[in-house]
Amino acid sequence: MSRLLLLFSNVENRRLLAAVLAGRGHEVTWPRSEKNAEVARLLDGPFDLCVLDGAALERLAARIRARRRREQPVLAPFLLVGPRREASTIARYLGEAVDEWITSPVERVELEARVQNLLRLRQLSQEAADKAHLEGVLLAARTFEHEIGNRLVTTVGYAELLARHPDLPEKLQRRAARAHQSAKEAMGIIRQVLALTEPERAARMRITDWGETGNTTIDLSNLPAAG
Fold first, then answer.
1. Largest CA distance in the chain
2. Residues 7 and 101 in one domain
3. 149: in domain
4. 32: domain CATH number?
5. Do the strands 206-209 and 216-219 form a parallel or antiparallel pair, or are they unpaired?
6. Burial level of 180, CB count in 10 A (0-12/13-18/19+)?
7. Contacts for 125 with CB less than 8 Å, ≥ 6 apart
8. Helices then strands (H, E): number in the chain?
9. Could you tell me if 87 and 138 lie in one domain?
10. pLDDT tens digits, residue range 33-75?
């Protein structure tokens, strides 16, 4: 269910649009009062599309631009509803504060088509942003594996040689064996981190929140060892 925010100075227009959009299965909300704090709270809150009129646009243009900048590279779509006579005013905001303009009185079919189009564009922009983020994580993980993994391979090799060296006292051989095992486990963790970029593994990821003692981390304990 898509979350739609309505910002209308004309209460009757808002009521009519809310009824149409809610009837199409959208979750519709709007300010319950005209207080600036209430409007700002909703405009800064979660929604997938905002539908507004010219008066609201004029009053909130700076805040709308700020919201859109914060969401980048994901699209925060705004659909403007206004009469054709306001075209010169509306033209100043198209592409900057609003994405599309639909003239009033509104045709239901056209309204729903515009709404679905903007919601689809938002979804596509979110998918593109997620893909770019995943590619960045993958690059970082591969770099991490290459730089740290190469050093660990050397560490594992030396530790194994020490653990098996006949001239080394038994006590030191045990310590070398533990170092060898720890280095092998560290290499396994690196492979697990790299494998998290695979969709089937990412879907099973769990996050651990360390609260005031530290940041959130990925819980690797529930993931199978990478091959």
1. 94
2. yes
3. yes
4. 3.40.50.2300
5. antiparallel
6. buried
7. 73, 74, 75
8. 7, 7
9. no
10. 777 888 989 999 999 999 999 889 988 999 999 999 998 888 9
